[in-house]
Amino acid sequence: PLPMRSSVFLASAVMVGLQAAAAVEKVSLEWQDVSCVLDKAGKSRKLLESVCGYAQPGKITAIMGPSGSGKTLMLNALCGQVRNSPGLDLEGRLLVNGEARAPTDLALAYVKQEDAFYSEMTVRETLRFHARLRMETNTTAARIEAKVDRLLATLGLAKSADTPVGDESKRGISGGERKRLSIACELISDPPLIFLDEPLSGLVQRLRRLADAGHTVVLTLHQPSQRIFSLVDDLVLLSEGRLVYAGPAGEVSQWLANLGAAKPRDMPASEFMLDTVSVNYESAKTEQGSRDRIQRFAYAAREAFKTRRASLARPSLFAAVFGGGGGGGGGEATAMSSSGGAGADSSAGAAGSQRVARGAARKALRPRSPLHVQFALLLSRAWRQVARAKGVLVIKAVQQIMVALIYGGIYKLDLSQRSIQDRLGLLSLVTVGASNLAIATTIRTFPKEKALVVEERSKRLYGVVPYFLSKLIADVPLSAALSGLFGALIYPLVGLQRSMPKFLNFLGLVTLESLASSAVGLLLGSIAPTTDAALAMFPPIVVLMVIFNGFNLSLESVPRGLGWVPALSLVRWAFEGLAVNEFRGLEFEPPGNALMKASGAYVKDGDGALANLAFGKSTVRGCALAQTCIIGGCWVTSLRSLQTNRPKLAPMRPPGSLGAKVAGSSAKLKRRRRKVTQQ
Asked: Would you say 374 and 463 are in contact if contact means Cβ atoms under 8 Å apart?
């Protein structure tokens, strides 16, 4: 029975794969004269220099080269994912089935080296989440499940479908499975183009199946084994940012041999070509010799690609220059931008290209799911992330219990004169400790989540408003419950006023401070670029809030120009509210010193203690309202920061604009030097 079940499953997977192959749109991609220059401090550095190449449907095209040759930058340029920075300029031309297109218009899947997921979500849930947001809104639940099951089977994730993804702190699926899950999420919308940055070796074999299904696969490889290299159809070889070969991978050795670099018999082709196009820094002579060799290869590759452009077919560069060998690249005929073409064939090709362009644009700009669908899915994911992290919940609960027990074991409040200082010290410590804990906890976790959210939003999965609302709704109950646990324990243990209204006020103020502290942590995490930056901003802000809490520094002593700081100090409002709630209504015992008792120079009641702190006119309601305003202000500012926190990508300009700019910069630099010399 078991072999029969396996055979049935395999047959089903094959049938599903054939159906998927029939639906894949055939797209050929060509890039011409892609250059990238970084201009810093008046010095221009060429990162890419007039790189050309092509990728065909049904084939794997690998971008390879030594370290620092520009492989990942080239891949990012094709995907429109080059991060913009001052002094960076990118130019080039992309052709999709012969028609010029912008990188942002391409319907593609891009899998980066780093992959991030919500750790508590299972593989199936993660894939279902992406499917619900990427597929058309009228897609039935049955079709979504069928799509998910098909991708799980195709990418070998069926066995781990119900396993949590995990992260560095929680065991989950393996690194290879994470990478396959990334690909599965990208394949939901059936993009014809698939780009991957240095996939794992085992993954390349599965990419072979996707290519056989009709996808155009482009990837970068770094020192692959000969077995993995044999799976590659076409090769784009770079060195020092320049193209040194573009054509069938199996012909690269012959190409190099015809240029004077013969491969030893016992040396794998993949290792040989990387050694041949690398700069040898052993000595000045070997360095110059290797650079001259690379320059010769780059010139030959450039001329060969010009020759190839002149024809409608796609022969290899080796065939175009040296003849013979011919076409291992598939010889797919497409309309080139440099070829005129006339008559019915040309018209039909142009019409087909336009249809492909419109279809790709529709997929790339697919409509988002309705807001209520986004919100429901995001809330479900956020709640699972919170509720399933049982270990984290237990640690946080134990932490609150331990702190409450420590306070309860030390403080025993009565109505003596010394209890006034004890009460003020206790309430101050409670507010400072709660704020530190909540801010630090949020800062350590949110920047990582923010990076994932920015990545998902760049793929148009959802908007920032439904995400932010879902996060707040999932996080607020937990924060409130933990604060309530702490307050319910510490209140009777230390001997605060035994009054139900005051007890409820205490719980409310402690909960509001926890929410306000989390909101401040959320704000710092949203505006800071990294976790380290957010943690660096944390101590000065907390120190300011503690200094201006109304107990360590009198409000009348606040320096001029800093009067706004106490108004924004959540520690101040929490401490003030707790002090008003506790002291109002208390009657203290007179001191034991007869002289002080006779003179009346002591604090007789809670109102007197509050007057000494300038809290005489304060109310619990006013303090709670101030904390609520801080929470709302931090949430709104965080939301706004997330809305504007999009990665700035460098646009690809038409070829030629960069050369003019570099020439202008060089001329300007020469004029400066000439002026300095004359002076």
From this structure: yes
Q: So what's the pLDDT on residue 161?
A: 93
d(CA 342, CA 361): 26
For residue 35, the number of C-alpha atoms closer than 13 Å in the C-beta half-sphere is: 18
Task: Report how far residue 278's alpha carbon sits from residue 50's, in angstroms, rounded to the nearest whole number.
Answer: 19
Residue 442: phi and psi, rounded to 5, are -70, -40
Strand pairing category for 60-64 and 234-239: parallel
Pairing mode, strands 60-64 and 216-220 = parallel
Which residue(s) pair with 582 in the sheet? none
Residue 658's pLDDT is what? 59
Q: Which residues share a beta bridge with 587? A: 605
Q: With beta carbons less than 8 A apart as the criterion, state whether 622 and 603 touch.
A: no
Question: Measured between alpha carbons, how far is 117 from 170 in angstroms, rounded to an integer?
Answer: 12
**Calculated CA dihedral for residues 514, 517, 523, 526, nearest 10 degrees:** -70
Per DSSP (E only), the strands in 189-337 are 193-197, 216-220, 234-239, 242-248
The whole-angstrom separation of Cα 139 and Cα 162 is 23
Structure tokens at 356: 């492909």
- Confidence (pLDDT) at 670: 55
Distance of CA 534 to the CA centre of its chain: 16
State the pLDDT at residue 408. 93
Q: Checking phi first, is residue 343 left (phi over 0); if not, alpha (psi -120 to 50) or beta? A: left
Largest CA distance in the chain: 116
Q: Report yes or no: 127 and 181 within 8 Å, Cβ to Cβ.
A: yes
DSSP secondary structure of 124-185? HHHHHHHHHHHS-TT--HHHHHHHHHHHHHHTT-STTTTSB---SSS--S-HHHHHHHHHHH
Return all residues near 565 (Cβ < 8 A) that are at least 6 apart.
544, 548, 558
Main-chain dihedrals φ then ψ at residue 18, nearest 5 degrees: -65, -40
- Tell me which long-range contacts 368-375 makes (C-beta under 8 A, separation of at least 24): 368/133, 368/460, 368/461, 368/462, 368/463, 369/132, 369/133, 369/137, 369/462, 370/137, 371/463, 371/465, 371/466, 373/132, 373/133, 373/137, 374/133, 374/462, 374/463, 374/466, 374/467, 375/466, 375/469, 375/470
Q: What pLDDT, on the 0 to 100 scale, is given for residue 236?
A: 94
Q: What is the pLDDT of residues 302-335, one digit of tens each?
A: 888 777 666 544 444 444 444 443 333 333 433 3
Query: Given the DSSP bridges, would you call strands 242-248 and 234-239 parallel, antiparallel or unpaired?
Result: antiparallel
List the chain residues with pLDDT less than 70. 1-23, 308-368, 593-601, 657-679
Q: Which long-range contacts (CB under 8 A, 24 or more apart) does 13-19 make?
A: 13/153, 13/154, 16/150, 16/153, 16/154, 17/154, 17/209, 17/213
Residues 214, 218, 220, 221: what is their CA dihedral angle, to the nearest 10 degrees? 30
CB atoms within 10 A of CB 592: 9
Please give the full DSSP string across 518-581, using - where no structure is assigned.
HHHHHHHHHHSSSHHHHHHHHHHHHHHHHHTSSSSS-GGGPPTT-THHHHH-HHHHHHHHHHHH
Whole-number Å distance between alpha carbons of 131 and 241: 38
Tell me if 133 sits within 8 A of 462, measured CB to CB.
yes
Element (H, E) at 610: helix 606-612
- Using CA atoms, how far apart are residues 510 and 238, in angstroms rounded to an integer? 61
Q: How many residues does the chain have?
A: 679
- How far apart (Å, rounded) are the C-alpha atoms in residues 246 and 236? 4
The three-point CA angle 98-102-107 to 5° equals: 80
pLDDT for the residue 458 = 79
Q: How far apart are CA 63 and CA 54, in angstroms?
A: 10
- The helix/strand/coil state of 238 is strand
